[in-house]
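Margin note from the TA: students keep mixing up input and output lines. Inputs are the sequences; the output is the structure of the whole complex. Example:
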Amino acid sequence: MKPVKIGLLGLGTVGSGTVQILQRNTKEIAGRTGRAIEILLIAVRDINRPRSIDTRSIELTQDPYAVVNHPDIDIVVELIGGDTFAKDLVMKAIANGKHVITANKALIANYGNEIFEQAQQQGVVVAFEAAVAGGIPIIKALREGLAANQIEWLAGIINGTSNFILTEMKEKGREFADVLAEAQQLGYAEADPTFDVEGVDAAHKLAILTSIAFGVTLKFDKVAMEGITDITPLDVSYAEQLGYHIKHLGFARKTQQGIEMRVHPTLIPRQRLIANVDGVMNAILVKGDAVGPTLYYGAGAGGKATGSAVVADLIDVVRTLTSDPDNRVPHLAFQADALVDLPILPLTQIETAYYLRLSLLDKAGVLAEITQILGQHHISIEAVIQKEPSNENTPAVTMIMLTHKVIEQHMNQAIVAMERLDSVMAKVVKIRLEHLNK
Amino acid sequence: MKPVKIGLLGLGTVGSGTVQILQRNTKEIAGRTGRAIEILLIAVRDINRPRSIDTRSIELTQDPYAVVNHPDIDIVVELIGGDTFAKDLVMKAIANGKHVITANKALIANYGNEIFEQAQQQGVVVAFEAAVAGGIPIIKALREGLAANQIEWLAGIINGTSNFILTEMKEKGREFADVLAEAQQLGYAEADPTFDVEGVDAAHKLAILTSIAFGVTLKFDKVAMEGITDITPLDVSYAEQLGYHIKHLGFARKTQQGIEMRVHPTLIPRQRLIANVDGVMNAILVKGDAVGPTLYYGAGAGGKATGSAVVADLIDVVRTLTSDPDNRVPHLAFQADALVDLPILPLTQIETAYYLRLSLLDKAGVLAEITQILGQHHISIEAVIQKEPSNENTPAVTMIMLTHKVIEQHMNQAIVAMERLDSVMAKVVKIRLEHLNK
């Protein structure tokens, strides 16, 4: 069969990784697909920039529209990132009848519904394995491997920078800001780390995972989002003492009331496999009604790991070039007319367990006041530890509580009531806790 | 679109799980595939046996050939197990132009080459996700998700019974035979547990994984196989003290000399995620040249978990019904003409690290004798611990050594030489060790 011709938009980290894989594993890939993949044209920002990869046999252009409009290109690979410009290019490629592969989570999370609708009308595929968790084939696992299941919930460590920072805080007792600075030096974190440490990047990925898990349209604006900037070594250490690791988790669950879709620091029992995913690695734990829990682990970023997902998508798309569009795997796992519009629950309505840290006046009757408030809000306690004041000059004791599951609104009300007490000497620290065992 | 009609061979644990999933998740599955799946006929051993599932709307037969010869059946699902009879049925179904789905690892490991060749000639698919690691979509991950990669090695905990036994031995210091008896009572192990504890079941699965990882034909008879029957609580405990867990591992690696394909007890550093996969759960760690290490974890057995893989295959096959056979995912990951015939290395030629337990006469100069022999065979030591005799009446001390990597033949020669020494008082215990970190 004749080679499939592709064009790339962007030749940064992921673009270079993708080209390297296609060059190094040419024979392997042709052996799998039965046909060769040929890079016809790559759009770059600066054609004269020195590159780490060999581009002598590939034509470069500074005009990305030359790629999406090229008559001989079958598949456009979008690796420039960002969203508005990338969207314009992708929509143009689709309008030109080209299949698209993208690693762009912001693009899919924000504009996926529109993009997929357009793609369906044009009978082309938009593949986005690389947009979530880098090289881990989680999109394929969810859309195809677990297709027999009603997915009940999923939980993912899907931002490597946050996981690296929390791992360092846990293992070395370091402060958030200190580790962040190192992560920036190591190149794990951007100069502006907001997207990583405030949870935006994880929220993009969670929005995508939620859609394909439950068959709902993409609703990025409904993701409840908290980052790790407020996590202290003290809380990491108390969590450890109670048998938990703190991870920045993307969590989605289907309930009778709607869908929980939230990104936040989370205590996880240390005996769970996912609690032991450390450093920059990613992992997603998925609970299906038939299969039970399954976990997928690997590198969530990096040129070659993400390129692995891009090229896997390429091979998939090459295989479907001749297939009836109606029999392809649907973009959001379910046929467009089978997507359901379930409500996304606001954070106040989610149900979870909590870790609370209270700073209390060291006098008789204080604990009774606290437990009375918790009781009034139907919050029951699973574990309590009390820490004696670290020096004699402070009248405060620290109390750590783990609660059973409760609606977040009730917890918030209880915290407001507790903070009104004279004996509560500082803001109550609240971190969510998921057992991830059923 | 009109429903796809399927027939089942067998209605045991996996058959019942499959039917339950198709009944419970009918809407979900139709929403994904865009068409319904209808069970037309199921062949059972005894039509009158009471069943836990609702078969009122399904026709049952005691004649399996009625299924494979049924003119209206598009897909035959083989779930009777065993190999020779199952093979005859599967070949007949293929000859009749039907697609086949099977959970039968023995069948694929032993006769896969012949079956796939016949299927290709007939233009049908034989899908076997359920044959390896139950509900974990590892076949899909390897054949498609990691298709961009040259796979370097893979390591799997792929027999739940063995993993349950080793986990109990580790956590409770119990003896092998004692835990096996419990596993049999719990239904994890068969009355004849040979296939599980001697490694045959794991070897079937490893043969399949090896083929699709490296693009070689199936060679089950070349799998080097050791079970867990000789593992003692003593060795489990010493391994722990050195920072390792003992797991029954299927391991395959591509080397310059050929392919290592072996199943045996293995020490793994406890900080590896896979070392912490406990109980009956399965996991496969795969190292690709682009993606790095990825891990897949889940239930490796059970009716509904395995049924999850069967139904995922069903959905896949339904999607390819109209597709050009040349553009399907090849059975063994690579196009038939791209499969390579690499030699499978005998156990004597593999290269690995070792745990050695020696029972030595407690006198001066013994250690020098041992280290001299190791040196002569180019074996270097990574760690040694010496245990004082547990009571004064025995003149023996126990010495545990971890070695660096060495060709197994050299290790075997060194052991023969050590066992000839007067100061070596018992057979040397040898367990392989894999770091699984590069």
